[in-house]
Design brief:
This protein is α+β, with helices and mostly antiparallel strands. The chain is built from 14 helices and six strands. The termini are far apart.
Length: about 350
């Protein structure tokens, strides 16, 4: 095997020394520090120092062990090339002062870090995390990997475990608020989920019933106003009522509103029908007709049959269709009636006209 002189390698190894070591300055509680990323042997030393410690003391010793090996400068004093520190200590047995040699991280932990408060140690350890993150990014620069160093599943599991660890330190109200902002919720039992689903289904049915009721109310037409029935004559029907055909009286009144114009036209047509010649029944020529009875009641013409006979004949011939022709009017008698002074009172033979 060949041998190479170290002098030839010094130039090549000069660039390979201290690769991956990153330093960053910071000021914590008025103390100027320079922190450097750790070597592999430093991590091993921290685990050896924490071995066998109880859980309460393990966390504090773990943080101080990393900081004691990461500090390379304190308030301008360079500690990069120093590994040991000589101190004078008093022997507890002989009470004699003698020099003692300590490793640098032991000296910093005993004479500096043990005097710091827990909050200061936490801040310094958090800043060391930033230094390690920068060192990792610089080490990855310019390096391409065939496979990712961390898959999505691994990253999700790691972040989930970290979130669960921090979850214990947060109050329940704040935790629920944060999860609600992101559309999440904490673990729920099957009974809680069942109650929520039943309540949601009930609200959906109530909303659907309200919408259906509103649609039915909009589709229902407005109710037509009730039309008063015409008052029936207690004594004798008027000529207009007797002229109307029987089939019209048998039909059912429509529910729609009555047109006043159509009612007026029907009234005019009824009055014109009074001028139609009287058609007498051939079967009952010997009996006085219904038109004669009505004329007797009104005092028109010469026929003056008995009132009871006329009424009885009128009720007996209910199925007969009567067409009345107006009697001739005596003009002289009419002028005599008009010229006379008016007579006070109500005409006993007056009958109000029925509305069609």
């Amino acid at each position: 095997m060949g041998t190479i002189d170290s002098k030839k390698l010094n130039a090549a190894l000069a660039k390979a020394k201290n690769i991956g070591l990153v330093e960053e300055a910071c000021t914590i509680a008025g103390c100027d520090l320079v922190l450097r990323s750790l070597r592999a042997e430093d991590y091993t030393g921290v685990l050896q120092d924490c071995d066998g410690l109880p859980e309460e003391e393990y966390i504090h010793r773990y943080q101080k062990g990393h900081l004691a090996r990461a500090i390379v400068e304190v308030n301008g004093v360079d500690l990069r090339d120093s590994r040991f520190v000589t101190v004078d200590e008093v022997d507890p047995t002989t009470k004699v002062v003698r020099p003692v040699t300590l490793e640098l991280h032991q000296y910093l932990m005993k004479h500096m870090l043990d005097t710091w408060g827990k909050e200061v140690v936490d801040i310094a350890f958090r800043k060391l995390g930033d230094v390690l993150e920068v060192a990792e990014r610089q080490a990855k620069t310019g390096v391409s990997f065939m496979t990712p160093d961390e898959t999505d599943e691994q990253k999700y599991r790691r972040l989930l475990l970290e979130a669960r660890a921090v979850e214990k330190e947060l109050p329940a109200s704040l935790l629920d608020k944060i999860l609600e902002e992101h559309g999440l919720m904490r673990h729920s039992t099957a009974e809680e989920i069942k109650r929520a689903m039943i309540r949601t289904d009930q609200l959906a049915r109530e909303q659907e019933a309200r919408e259906q009721k509103a649609e039915e109310q909009e589709a229902q037409p407005p109710a037509a106003p009730a039309t008063p029935e015409p008052a029936a004559s207690a004594d004798v029907a008027t000529p207009e009522a007797s002229v109307a055909p029987a089939s019209a009286t048998a039909t059912t009144r429509p529910s729609r509103l009555i047109d006043p114009h159509a009612t007026l036209q029907n009234a005019i047509a009824s009055r014109k029908a009074l001028e139609v010649p009287v058609v007498k029944s051939e079967q009952n020529d010997s009996k006085p007709t219904r038109s004669a009875a009505i004329a007797a009641l009104e005092g028109v013409g010469d026929a003056t049959p008995d009132l009871s006979t006329a009424v009885s004949q009128q009720s007996g011939d209910a199925s007969e269709v009567i067409e009345i022709k107006s009697a001739p009017v005596d003009l002289q008698a009419a002028h005599a009636i008009v010229d006379n002074p008016p007579i006070a009172g109500i005409n006993p033979r007056f009958r109000p006209q029925q509305k069609v």
